[in-house]
Amino acid sequence: MEIVIDPKSGFCFGVKRAIEMAEAEVKKNKTLYCLGEIVHNAEEVTRMQQLGIRFIDRDTFLTLSDCKVLFRAHGEPPETYLHAREKNIEILDATCPVVLKLQDRVRAAQLENPNTRVVIFGKPDHPEVIGLKGQVENPVIVQTLSDVEQLNLDQPISFFAQTTSDKQVYAQMMACLRQRIKETGLPNDFFTSYDSICGQVANRGPWLAGFSKTVDSLIFVGGKNSSNSKVLFEVCRQHNANAYFITRASELAELPLSLAGRVGISGATSTPSWLIEEVAERLRELERL
Ligand code: SF4
User: Fold this and answer.
1) Which of 76, 166, 251, 286 has its Cβ near the most Cβ atoms within 10 Å?
2) pTM as predicted
3) What domain range includes position 261?
4) What is the dihedral sign for C-alpha 207, 210, 215, 217?
5) Residue 275 contacts residue 267 (beta carbons within 8 Å)
6) What is the average pLDDT score of the chain?
């Protein structure tokens, strides 16, 4: 068996940065709260809890005062910053620079033209989308092409996407809007769109499709609650009939996996490199048995 670790696996730079900020802080200051899970990966969250980081939900955050709280890479709406100021909560802001830039653009779209309706392609309850929604008045969230087909065209539209959205679906939505605007006889500048999908996510799919074909079987390591993991595993499955999804190394023993040929290991942008290495080590142990 030859084990091949995907050279592009591991955290995206936004999550890596947030985790490094949390690690550095908890070394200096024993109590650090983090609002929400720092990454959609239970193994990494457990590791961070062992370092002393306390993960809290929004309700708990609202009860805190005079402490330090990390805002993760997904970003927060303005009301979260306001609450922190009022309760003397020091913020360690790990919002990803890509998300911050997107929040700025969303705000600017409505500031420049108050009559503009901001439309965001994303999941309404995703933390990044909650952060984006809070930047403007009355944004509309769309999840499917049919949502876009039903959009009211009574106001100019500024169209954005959650950074982890599907690029192809976003392109279809933009094409649909352009067509509807043309058919209605509205001016071309009635609709403005922004390429707000993060390259760190968008490029991982095509790369994984290629990587999956170079190995005989593929172990994909991801979080059960990570939508990015589910999408990327589907890509692997389409290009390699022997692709398996696991969340931790101990699950390897249950797989109908042949320990022969080239065995690839990869993961989502939320899968830590140490977990990928642990899976590789367990594979080597299984081969020795
Ligand atoms: S996926 Fe992109 S936007 Fe999201 S945290 Fe990672 S680097 Fe930032």
Assistant:
1) 76
2) 0.89
3) 2-10+202-288
4) positive
5) yes
6) 94
